[in-house]
User: Fold this.
Amino acid sequence: MNILFVLGSYPSIGGVESVVTNLSNDFTDLGMTVHIVSFESSCSLEKMRLHPDVKLLKLSKPVLSKNNRIILSEYIKEHCVDFVINDWVLPFYVTMLIRKSIKGTACKLIQAHQNLPTTNARLKDLEIKMEEKKGVYAFNKLKWHFINLISRLSLKYVYHVCDKFAVLSPTFISQFEKYIWVGNAYKMCAIPETFDSTANGTLPEKNKEILYLGRLDYNQKRVRRVIDIWNELEKKYPDWCLTIVGDGPDMKELQKRTKEYGLQHVSFEGFQKGDKYFNRSAIMLLVSEYEGFGIVLAEAQSHACVPVALDSYTALHDIVENEKNGIILKYPYDKDEFVKAVENLMLDKKKRERMAFSGMKTVKRFERTKIVDMWIELFNELKNSKLNGGGVI
Assistant:
């Protein structure tokens, strides 16, 4: 079986790229041939821990160029690709490139939407401008409605021309149906993200450490909130510390904010493998304005690190049960509520240990072998279907 992933950037730092790496390695270990097609890269391949047998193809921008179509079409035919998994669902013209490239073949197209299906970064940028009263409000509002309409129509197109559309949570399916005006999205399925679970049922000794791990950006992750929360806690609890692991466009602003607050117990670690930080940290914060799945929550649970998260997306409830294996705080974000919840956990070691132990048990449903089995089941379903993937334009 030949599998080809399509991403905007690879190798690159990010959750989607890490998931593709994991799946590529697992599929390769199962005897499949795996290819990854990208249009740019932002880090060295060594950081991705990719199986040496995975084949890489680099195309160029503009995406929908004739040269890209010729190269990709010939590549798919030469390597007898069975399934294209498009992890770069929007913009729509990525799908157009793939459809033209697989025309006349039996190759099937799977759209893998790696985020909340009802929003995106461009919409959030405009919402931020309106909230902060930047520019003309009426113009930004009109632009928001226009981009939202284009997003809905684009998703409607990429759904109709694919063979299967995978989202990260069953809760996203009904949201997606309403968003693209489809009564019964029969092509849809839900497959969570995958990660390496290390849960063994034994509670490790934890430092008095709070962790944030992820991309450092304002549009989605809102990491400034983490600094603001810590600013309310550091002086009261000088034996605790905050560790921020990750990189992104907000790094300098966050460091500046930390300095302005006069915070002494904050460490910026940059992009690092998360295991050692999860192992030693007692609490992890996720304050995103929106997410796709939030696999970092499951990673924390597998290391007995208790997550405290903002209820800004429905897939959160697939991972965290409030007051059982983590804490869920109501949306919209309220700093005082976060400070109170984190402080209560800091002061109650027995509660942290109870939640940590519960998390190590419940997180097993997201182990890599189980998620890979879901993908294999999907491949087999499509192989046995009568749909001709390459015959739809």
Remarks:
- The first strand starts at residue 2 and ends at 6.
- The radius of gyration is 22 Å.
- The chain has 14 helices and 13 strands.
